[in-house]
Amino acid sequence: MTTTTARMTATRRWQVALITVGVALLGVGGIVLLMDVNPSRYVGIAIWFLGALIIHDGIAAMVVFGISIAMRRFGRRIPGFVIAVIQGALVIAAIFAAIVVPEILKQSIGSANPTILPLNYALNLALFYAGLAVITTATIVGYLVLARRQKLRSSISQH
Amino acid sequence: MLVQWRIQRLLHQMRHSLAAPSRNPRTAVVIGRLLATAFLVCFATGLYSHFIQDPLPGMLFLTRPVWLYQVSQGIHITAGIACFPLLFAKLYAVFPELFQSPPVRSFSHFLERASIALFVAASLVQITIGLLNTYQWYALFPFPFRQTHFALSFVIIGSLAIHIAVKLGTIQKYWRKKAHYDDEPDPDATFDVPDELRRLTGEPQASGVTGRLFNWIDKTPAPAEPKTSRRGFFATIGVATAALVVFTAGQSFRAFDITNLFAPRKNDTGPQSLPVNRTAEKAKVVDAAMSSNWRLAVSNGSSTKTFTLDELKALPQYDVVLPIACVEGWSQYADWRGPRLRDLVDSVDAKSGASVRITSLEQNSSYAVTTMEPNFVRDELTLVALELNGEVLDIDHGYPARIIAPARPGVLQTKWLSSLEVLS
Fold this sequence. Notes:
Chain A is an all-alpha fold and 159 residues long. Chain A has helices at 2-36, 42-74, 80-109, 121-158. Chain B folds into 2 domains: 20-185 and 221-251, Up-down Bundle (Fumarate Reductase Cytochrome B subunit); 280-423, Alpha-Beta Complex (Sulfite Oxidase, Chain A, domain 2). Chain B has 14 helices and 11 strands.
């Protein structure tokens, strides 16, 4: 009992310390914003904050939800491992698209000098996706072959 | 219209249908630890980069190892890129919490939810503008990058501290691996609960368009192998993070140059095989830098000496191998040759503890005038470079003369030198 109380107190102390540090840092952030950023820009920052929440929570997360439901619904006969691998590959592809597609767009608009965005990002992304597709397929095929062998072995040992 | 109870039902149905094996407190803690580490690494390296450019009185910075800034800023950018999959994973794990009902239980609960909204929004904006800054796409955001990025870093780490404090109980409980994670009774675990709306109107959960949709989702079989699903989640985030690092870190770390497919910068590109941040044309210095009247003025109080390019070449020349390391994360080693800065300032009797104000021919840039602290001025590796990789400096690399010093950010390696002023 004493130990539990002591631990509770320690937790409480940590919480107070963390909240104090947190509020102080938020204060510093606020002061920096007030001192270094022109108030006419605050609306732009607020729009970006709101936009980030809407794009993530309202659109991206919902699309992910829709796809995972669809995959579960239509992939009832597909082994869980295969579903997990396909979902994983799709997520990796989406994350790379989020990082690389803006580079491709900016490159097509033009950059400040030729050493900024010097690579062929569209081709590299296509190559990356091809590699991802090959690895995904190989993993699934490898799993299915192994699973089949194990199944055969267990059915033979039962006889 | 029973709006309150309809909203409550909708929130229950959303939370119920979003349940997934990898969405549990343990996942949130595991990913949260990694994300918090990445955020703290970015914060520490970001503060280092900020204060080496704008030091507070009394701050001192190391001149060794020569790669200190290169590695620090390379880690800043690479960890920042790794934050993308980690942040997405964290938000995925806790997404059902967005639909908790009732949405606000008390004033402290409101504060908690508001602080999380601020934390999430600031984090998403921070890593996005950080990434866009690495290829200078400033037109996309209507606020100044550096000041906003700096201010948001405090907002994020402050929110992180508060978030850890609020969730400390959960963090302690799920810090270590457990046999199972479903010991918390979840009020939204069952779809067809008799809620207030049903008590008042008799409408079952599956009524109406949304009710039928959620009922259809509820009939969707849950993953047969929750363990596989959970492992798949962690493997996906692990592979995505590792792949992003492998395919972008080449701009900062030579070892990854061969796998540099997606970084905004590539080693060995540009004039004299070295990337450029700001060209002479953009800086509007071409005429002044190419002029035969160019002189480097070195002054200490009322004593001033001017050097022509030939006079600089006639001074003892030194060769150094130093990285040029940009605040945007890219860096590359190069061979530099020229007189030592300390020899030049000693020609006007500079004291050993004196700083030097360095002015460029460049106008309208916040880095046109910078101050170098005494330990960098006195360093034997700090040169007024006239040559790069065995050739006369290219105009885009600062012809006729530029500063190169160890362990300093690229923006302080002033190009197109105009004057050096010893400060008392």
